[in-house]
Amino acid sequence: MAEQITITFPDGNEKKYPKGTTGREIAASIAKGLAREALSITLNDEVLGLDRPIEEDGTITINTWDSEDGKYTFWHSSAHVLAEAIQELYPNAKFGIGPPIEDGFYYDIDFGNQTIGHDDLEKIENKMIEMARKKSEFDRLPVSKEEALAHYKEVGNEYKIDLIDDLEDGNITFYKQGNFTDLCRGPHIPNTGRIKAVKLTSLAGAYWRGDEENEQLTRIYGISFPKKKLLDQYIERVEEAKKRDHKKLGKELGIYMIDQMVGQGLPVWLPNGTVLRRTLEAFLREEQKKRGYKEVITPHIGNLELYRTSGHYPYYRESQYNPIEMEGEEDGYLLKPMNCPHHHRIYSNELRSYRDLPLRLAEFGSVYRYEQSGELNGLSRVRGFTQDDAHIYCTHDQLKDEIKNCIDLTELVFGTFEMPVDIRLSFRDDNEDKYGGESEFWDRAEQEIKEVADEMDLDYTIGRGEASFYGPKIDFIIRDAIGRKWQLGTVQVDYVMPERFDLTYVGSDNSKHRPVIIHRAPFGSMERFTSILIEHFAGDFPVWLSPKQVQIIPVSDDFNEYAFKCASALKKEDVRVEVDTRSEPIGGKIRDAETSKIPYMLIVGGDEEEEGTVSVRRHKEGDIGTFDFSEFISNLTDEIDNKEVPKH
Fold first, then answer.
1. How many CB atoms lie within 10 A of CB 39?
2. Helix axes 526-537, 228-244, angle to 10 degrees
3. Which of 87, 288, 387, 398 is catalytic?
4. What is the pLDDT of residue 1?
5. Active-site residue identified among 87, 127, 160, 340
6. Which residues contact 431 (CB under 8 A, 6 or more apart)?
7. Which of 380, 567, 585, 599 is the least buried, fewest Cβ under 10 Å from its Cβ?
């Protein structure tokens, strides 16, 4: 009898199979339909092709289009089909890297002296579909490092040679489909015929290895689908996303501006945007106060030694501004890349007892990162931004409860905006050079995070290699109104910084002990979160969040006094209200208020003044009736206090 292996399925059920069974055979043993739909498998957190023999016990997921790993495999394979099409159309092209990304894939290509423009994309798309219809299988070919180097020296591709130089012999594979062969670790879909629809979305320049000193390649972005209908739906979402673009709406609604004299990537918050941001901050401040946080303020720069101690310098050296030299001082100063080192020094400012813990320090702290100009994007990718940072210093016995409290707060924040949340436990991978601290601390932290997630019955995935350099974390990935995913809040357990900063507390045994640190930021950054909010609500903010909540429009100057009387009463309830006294037709004033996405318009004239009422219009709904003014105030303040969310 053949040697058996035990396969565990996502529901916990186990089944024995002969050693060497493939993922395709396991899928077929469950259902023929599943085998037809299967794109790859995930075995013990590693995505593999369907035809890879399974030689050991493991937990398996059969990946279809509806799963993250299924899309990853599909788009990875599509990048290879793009390269195959390019090879057919431009035989002298040299290929760099072609990975899947969150929505689709790209390939970096050196076209030599040829210039590729947007007009060429349709031709390439058509060639891709032609290649896909051949239903070429993806053949996995293990090769030695010597063979791999010899192949790419023969074809004259210095980019692949550069990649191979960093690889270990015995772990190198090629994948071949049709006449195209690529350096790749896989996995891939069964054959190219699964790809039914393709859209090449954009072109960009990309320096090889992200280094401005290297050759600039042409990056072609694309997306593909197993059905034409899915591509049509995607194009509809793209068009809807254009309408919601925060750069467009941010300008129209007076939220922020980017001024070249101030500097690229340094947003300036305009009055409406400042109201929006301060309202968000006040919301979180109130929740933090309930939970025992203490707010602090730290400088925008710090001594370089502070960041050497934390490891942010040199770990993030390439994303930081150059140190500022100070006359008479040995060390320079650095624009603050992170708030946490400053908070650790606050903790060290006095002797701490176990009775002082947990200590929860919070700050809306501004930080600065150097981003390449081509990567800047409105509020979502900037060089100066504000994090809603908090650091919790606690004992080991308090850790799990504090993690739970952080998760509760983060879920409250996103629930307030009716944003569905996916949770990822971000752990380290096998590349220990990427991480600081002792392995035993990492193992402990990962175990504790997983225990909390299980105890809270969270629906989560595990992302290997997604951890920060000093600790594993819980990432909260929200979905906006049109289904796009955004990684926002994080909760991170840190055993490394207490060692680096020699943080201690005196325990009940009168001995010194290390605290554990939790890093926590629900919004992530105020800038990026605001960009997502703008697009999530298409600028039609909930009333409690809207920079202008009510616009009062008198039908003529004769009723200005009543309009201002109403405004005064609303202001006493902290409602943000303005009176439009311009000498414009009332229809134009209503259109302007509608364009400005002001939630409520109050039309007042003789009848309203005489009866103490207001005629109410709701943004996007039009006239909703005439209300006693006191009734309108009561309804409005209830809507604000309850933080009600409009349909979006």
1. 28
2. 110
3. 387
4. 55
5. 340
6. 465
7. 585
